[in-house]
Amino acid sequence: MSRSRSCLLLALPLLAALAFLSACPGPTPVYDGGADFQRAGDSARICQPNNDGVIALSELSFVVGLGASYLVNPPGTLVDFDAAGQLLEGATEWDFSSTAGSVAAVKLEPVAGTWFAKHFPKATFAAGADIKAETLQVLSLDQGQLLLLGLASRQPDSTLMVYDTPIPSLRFPLRLGDSINAKSTVTNGRLGGMPIATEDTYDIKVDAQGT
Question: What is the Cα–Cα distance from 78 to 96, expressed in whole angstroms?
Answer without folding.
Answer: 14
